[in-house]
């Protein structure tokens, strides 16, 4: 087994000897610096590949402090203020963090800001309000008593949000705040490229420039108590400037409103159904960002170095699943691995030579402190990622943060040694190829391919009560023996359903980008999918799929799914329920299934539907024959081994592939099988921290028995 390579270790100042020791233990062939750290010359002489983090738009206060009108800007929405007379004053910065944000007092507020009567939704005439720059307040005249008012205003971002987060997390005390800057301004753009050119000359030891990231931060806004107030990993809120807004108007022929960004306080969350203005701004921004990323990449290559992009921080405008990403010429993408879903988000990226995962835990004091055992998180993170790696391998792995903290935990050091060796062993045995997928599954939503493996997310891999019932679908699929793609409603409307798709999944709460909202009122969409299912296709709906109140139905494909949701409009119409079926292929192994947050009042539309789980008068699981195809309804699917098994069986059942299910399946849902026919082998993984036993049936019907230690993987050669 290879014990060296495919591993990047972080280091820092005055830690050369320990870096050398741990690099040998972990088989590291590359060394990186983390935010706020530098590599000693002794570390650089270890003969490893050197990654250098590079921040194109921060860490140069000497420039931006003289050009504070060229920092990035964001549209902010104030608190709603109740008018009790004909004049009302709105404090712009109430509940925002003044050390991070500062109102733009330079550009004409009456041109770039907006006051809205939130009771009527009407925009207040600019002649009726004034901005007090001394007190950062707006006074509205002629207001209606008992109406609420807001101000949407431009603010400068005067403390880089990620450096700020690291600063607060690590208690960096008096360290100077790093001010970000916006390259949309020609003078600052020229500074960025001149500075980078000089940096390349000054850092001949660097082999890989690890851009962290490029120009625009995802939406990360803090409140007056230093808490995260607005977080959207996909948000474009922090990308605006008067110059860019004017250029957009000249190009597109219409002017964006502040409301197009603050979006009634939703800030264009990825859960919102995207509108034309949002799509146009994303495309406008991406065109600008990519042109300048390409220049940085070309300069990097001209200096004989590789260009690597970190999938996070200032990554807005570089979405890797948008068309044209491969034209940037990046060598690699590295991203944080929080689970199987985020692993796939990195591993499936097209157009780069290799991908790398930065595993958890991050070597920060919030985890590496006395009394904690970081190895528990380390193994949990590895088990989640490993099942996805078997389906879509990344090329490299590593960690980030302060190595000196990790070195204080010998058990964790040993855990990483074992993980790194196992990661290399998987690559060696499989040749870096994915396991065989047996079905082709398409996730259908508004975003499609652009948000591959990014659906149902608010902040990167962080749990959320309102999302876990849907995010669990992706987590289950990330390590399942299926091939996954993401398609949009526009894709289906333009060209129908691809011939090789076996199953379509539509999932999400009502009126979100993931369920689709009123797109389901389009007769072309529902007709296309109905025709496809009746011809033998499979449709799985989760939560409130195909939902839109229209023509007396809420689930517009209720006829396919066999169920609809009572919206308190047809209570006078009786519903007749067939008996719940105990014996069905989908539920043969169902134990401890968790359907997540309840979807109330889901009922069968007739007595022909097969009810598989009903609780408190609501359908949680149902199957329905529809021509030569089938529909399956699931009310919610948080991730667990039992739920992943239920979904897998539902996919095989809906696509009428029950006869193919047994081969290369594990009898224990806590264990999964990955088959590599070209390599003539398969493996079984234990996804738990407990010993597990299981049986695996081969394609020829032969049975293999396994006893797996906690977190273990077992390989079996085939003749």
Automatic annotation (TrEMBL):
EC number: 2.4.1.211
Residue ranges constituting the Lacto-N-biose phosphorylase central domain according to the UniProt record: 440-659
GO terms, molecular function: 1,3-beta-galactosyl-N-acetylhexosamine phosphorylase activity; 1,4-alpha-oligoglucan phosphorylase activity
Domain Lacto-N-biose phosphorylase-like N-terminal TIM barrel: 5-433
Entry keyword set: Glycosyltransferase, Transferase
Pfam family, one: Lact_bio_phlase
Annotated Lacto-N-biose phosphorylase C-terminal domain residues: 664-715
Any single GO BP term: carbohydrate metabolic process
NCBIfam families from the UniProt entry: 1,3-beta-galactosyl-N-acetylhexosamine phosphorylase (TIGR02336)
Protein name: 1,3-beta-galactosyl-N-acetylhexosamine phosphorylase
């Amino acid at each position: 087994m290879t014990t060296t390579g495919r591993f990047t270790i972080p280091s820092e100042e005055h830690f050369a000897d320990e870096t050398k020791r741990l690099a040998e233990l972990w088989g590291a062939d590359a060394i990186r610096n983390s935010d706020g750290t530098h590599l000693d010359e002794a570390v650089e002489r270890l003969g490893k590949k050197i990654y250098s983090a590079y921040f194109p738009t921060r860490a140069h206060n000497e420039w931006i402090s003289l050009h504070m009108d060229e920092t990035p800007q964001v549209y902010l929405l104030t608190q709603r203020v109740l008018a009790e007379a004909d004049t009302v004053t709105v404090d712009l910065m109430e509940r925002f963090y003044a050390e991070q944000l500062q109102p733009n007092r330079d550009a004409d507020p009456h041109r770039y800001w907006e006051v809205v009567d939130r009771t009527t939704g009407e925009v207040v005439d600019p002649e009726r309000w004034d901005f007090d720059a001394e007190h950062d307040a707006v006074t509205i005249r002629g207001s209606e008593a008992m109406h609420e008012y807001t101000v949407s205003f431009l603010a400068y971002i005067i403390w880089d949000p990620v450096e700020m987060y690291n600063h607060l997390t690590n208690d960096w005390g008096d360290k100077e705040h790093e001010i970000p800057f916006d390259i949309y301004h020609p003078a600052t753009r020229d500074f960025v490229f001149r500075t980078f050119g000089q940096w390349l000359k000054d850092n001949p030891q660097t082999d890989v420039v690890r851009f962290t990231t490029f120009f625009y931060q995802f939406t990360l806004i803090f409140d007056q108590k230093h808490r995260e107030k607005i977080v959207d990993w996909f948000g474009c809120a922090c990308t605006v400037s008067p110059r860019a807004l004017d250029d957009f108007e000249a190009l597109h022929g219409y002017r964006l409103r502040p409301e197009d960004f603050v979006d009634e306080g939703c800030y264009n969350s990825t859960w919102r159904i995207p509108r034309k203005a949002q799509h146009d701004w994303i495309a406008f921004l991406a065109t600008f960002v990519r042109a300048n990323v390409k220049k940085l990449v070309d300069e990097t290559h001209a200096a004989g170095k590789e260009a690597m992009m970190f999938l996070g921080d200032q990554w807005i405008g570089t979405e890797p699943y948008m068309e044209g990403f491969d034209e940037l010429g990046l060598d690699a993408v590295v991203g944080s691995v929080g689970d199987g879903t985020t692993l796939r988000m990195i591993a499936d990226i097209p157009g780069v030579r290799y991908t790398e995962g930065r595993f958890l835990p991050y070597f920060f004091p919030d985890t590496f402190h006395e009394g904690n055992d970081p190895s528990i998180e380390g193994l949990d993170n590895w088990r989640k990622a490993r099942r996805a790696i078997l389906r879509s391998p990344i090329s490299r792995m590593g960690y980030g943060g302060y190595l000196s903290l990790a070195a204080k935990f010998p058990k964790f050091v040993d855990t990483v040694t074992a993980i790194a060796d196992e990661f290399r062993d998987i690559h060696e045995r499989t040749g870096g190829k994915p396991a065989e997928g047996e079905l082709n599954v398409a996730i259908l939503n508004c975003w499609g391919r652009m948000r591959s493996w990014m659906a149902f997310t608010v902040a990167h891999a962080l749990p959320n009560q309102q999302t876990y019932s849907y995010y669990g679908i992706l987590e289950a699929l990330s390590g399942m023996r299926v091939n996954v793609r993401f398609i949009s409603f526009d894709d289906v409307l333009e060209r129908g359903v691809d011939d090789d798709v076996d199953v379509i999944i539509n999932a999400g709460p009502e009126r979100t980008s993931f369920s689709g909202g009123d797109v389901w009122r389009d007769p072309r969409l529902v007709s296309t999918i109905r025709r496809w299912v009746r011809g033998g296709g499979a449709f799985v709906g989760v939560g409130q799929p195909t939902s839109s109140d229209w023509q007396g139905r809420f689930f517009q494909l209720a006829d396919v799914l066999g169920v609809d949701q009572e919206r308190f409009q047809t209570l006078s119409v009786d519903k007749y329920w067939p008996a719940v079926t105990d014996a069905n292929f989908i539920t043969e192994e169902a134990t401890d299934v968790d359907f997540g947050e309840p979807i109330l009042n889901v009922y069968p539309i007739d007595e022909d539907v097969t009810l598989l789980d009903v609780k408190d008068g609501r359908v949680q699981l149902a199957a329905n024959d529809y021509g030569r195809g089938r529909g399956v309804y699931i009310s919610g699917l948080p991730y667990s081994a039992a739920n992943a098994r239920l979904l897998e069986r539902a996919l095989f059942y809906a696509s009428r592939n029950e006869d193919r299910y047994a081969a290369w399946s594990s009898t224990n849902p806590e264990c999964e099988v990955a088959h590599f026919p070209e390599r003539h082998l398969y493996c079984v993984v234990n996804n738990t921290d407990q010993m597990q036993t299981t049986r695996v049936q081969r394609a020829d019907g032969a049975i293999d028995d396994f006893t797996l230690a906690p977190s273990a993987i077992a390989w079996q050669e085939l003749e």
